[in-house]
Amino acid sequence: MAYLIEALLFLLPFAAYGLWRRMNPSAQPSTILLALGAIGVALMLAGAFWYGLSRSMPRGTVYVPAHIEGERVEPGHAEPRR
């Protein structure tokens, strides 16, 4: 069920654009709107790239998943490769 909701949320902007085009066939999006959309896409890609670089593990380390030691949960972490 969650996948269906995610798919609908993904398709919602495309459906809204299609509905807008159907209701206003002769209208064109303004240049400012297109420029703002392009800037938004560029910022999203730059943010995703920055986040990926800032959260990556250093070379020569391996991820150790969370596990239970005794009665407490040890969070996941990176350790040097053995």
From TrEMBL:
Pfam families linked: DUF6111 (PF19606)
Domain of life: Bacteria
Keywords attached to this entry: Membrane, Transmembrane, Transmembrane helix
Database matches in InterPro entries: DUF6111 (IPR046093)
Residues spanning the membrane: 32-53
Annotated protein name in UniProt: Uncharacterized protein
